[in-house]
Amino acid sequence: MTGRLNSAQPYALGLFRIVIGLLFTCHGSQSLFGVLGGADGQGATVSAGAWPNWYAAVIELVGGALVLLGLGTRFAAFIASGAMAYAYFKVHQPQALWPVENGGEGAALYCWAMFLLIFTGSGALGLDQLFAKRQATSSDKTDRSKAPVAA
User: Fold this and answer.
1) Which region, left, alpha or beta, applies to residue 51 given φ > 0 means left and ψ of -120 to 50 means alpha?
2) Are 88 and 111 in contact (CB under 8 A)?
3) In sequence order, which residues have a C-beta less than 8 Å from that of residue 27 and are 6 or more positions away?
4) pLDDT for res 22
5) Which has the closest alpha carbon to 109: 93, 79, 94, 88?
6) Distances in whole angstroms, Cα of residue 42 to Cα of each of 11, 26, 77, 106, 129
7) Residue 97, phi then psi, degrees to nearest 5
8) Model pLDDT for residues 28-39, shown as the tens digit of each residue
9) C-alpha span between 81 and 61 (Å, rounded)
10) What would the pLDDT profile of 41-72 be if each residue is shown by its tens digit?
């Protein structure tokens, strides 16, 4: 049983990354474009350049899309995790200590989910893996062409 679960781990991690990235992208789209109810539930958007809401929304949209695609996953997750930590400690935590009291569950969960992706990478089904395989294949061809030929 453990062996079977271990062999599926990259795919489970890839699906986790895709879902987190999609949800994070939707959150950014909601704030920037007013879709899915908008920033206030009525279709409103955040003002361009407004600190920190607009910048957070851009990080959510771009970072979420990169995580969703598995492209630069570790870097995008690092920036996204930091943004959510900032959101939690500056917006939610001053209202109350616990996330369930201050409405910061989403920020805390996104922060920790992205933090996990920093260390695990994209898993299966990501563009990072595709590019790594291509690079490994091309470096193998390059290494063989530089090898001395024995007579």
Assistant:
1) beta
2) yes
3) 57, 60, 64, 106
4) 98
5) 88
6) 37, 16, 29, 20, 40
7) -75, -50
8) 999 999 998 988
9) 13
10) 888 888 888 888 899 999 999 999 999 999 99
Q: Is the pLDDT of residue 100 over 80?
A: yes
Which residue bears the tokens 């995790």?
81
